[in-house]
Every structure is written in C-alpha cells, then in structure tokens.
C-alpha cells in the first residue's frame, strides 16, 4: 500500500460505532476534540455485512479523513482501509479484533451465544437483551453506576431487534482483516480497556505484531465500553495521536 502523509492537526474524523452503538458512544470524544477537527459519527442503517457498513460510511465520508472504529466499528474501519486506502490518513482501532469466526466447535459456540442474544432481543426486547449483554462489557466495578449503565442500555434500546440481528449476522460472517493490518503504512493507534474481557489487551498486542508501527494505548480501570467508562483518559490518548 502506498504511504499516505500524516494528517495535519486539522481535518475530518470519521467515527465508526460498535454493535448497536451510535453517536451517543462517541459524544464525549466529539465534545473533547479541538475545533479544528470535525468529527462525524456514522449510522450503518440496515447494512447486514461488514463490507456494506464500510460502503455506507464511505458514501458519507469526505475525500480524506482520519478514522476511528470501536469494536465492530474497528472491523468496519479495517474494511474501509481495504476498500479505499488512499482516503484514510490515520487509523484508530478501539476494543476490536481482526480474525474471522473460528472454524469448528469454537466458532459454533460463538454463533450460539450471539443467536441467544438475538432471540432474547426478539422475545423480550432490546432493553432486556442489553441488560444481560452489558454484564460482561464494562469494568465490573461500574455495573452499579446507574447513569453509565442507563446511557448504554438506552442507546441500544433506541434500535430494534431486527437491526441487532443484522449486525450480529455481519459479525458472524466477518472477514479476516489480517492482510489489511499487515499492509498498513498509515499512522495507527490500537486502544483498549485494561479489563476488556471481549477484546482483550492480548488481542490488541497480536494486532500490533501484524502492524508493528502501530502504538498501543491501554486505558486503566475500563472494560469494553472504554470511551463511556473512562472518557478523560481515552480522549487524551486519542488527541495525542491525532494532533
């Protein structure tokens, strides 16, 4: 891949949310970036594949931009780099992964877990599903933080079970992004919560092996929803990288 020059300290930042997330997740960062950086959160609409999500984001994006993706959004970000490498100036991958679903028993176990959540959302509603899902997605000490938990559950509850099913199917069919990571030449930062049990620090270290020029920022006392859990530390790390 041809090397793209470093982005200046002004420009556009495209924000790619994770599963069932939206601009609510990104709001702390959007409020915390300098005025010279124009940030835009993407809505994937009814997209039901990682590639379709990437294409939806590219249709809204300016000619060149910095890119930040959280969780599922990190996979979308890597797909955008694959589809339009010359348009991406800097890349931030947060609490995410790069491998496809495993073959065999491990992959079937993942599928069963995701489909159980889809069934729960269809049967009892998205809010009830998220109340179960969130138990493993924030730092254990934050499960009693009513304001934080409601902000996450409420964000999920603004979407329906059909969208949840489409996004889960997209994740089950996710592509292998190893070649994209290995070909990266643009500035890249990997970032995750220390206590993220879904997208672990070790997983991000493995990504750094494929993209050795990437930096790694680990946010202490945070789980998978790192920006909402520890906004100040997360924003500072992102600002340092973008500026």
From TrEMBL:
Keyword annotations of the record: Hydrolase
Annotated AB hydrolase-1 domain residues: 42-236
Keyword Repeat part of the UniProt annotation: no
Hydrolase keyword on record: yes
Molecular function (Gene Ontology), one example: hydrolase activity
Record-linked InterPro entries: AB_hydrolase_1, AB_hydrolase_fold, Carboxylesterase_BioH
PANTHER family (alphabetical): HYDROLASE ALPHA/BETA FOLD FAMILY, PEROXISOMAL MEMBRANE PROTEIN LPX1
Record-given protein name: Alpha/beta fold hydrolase
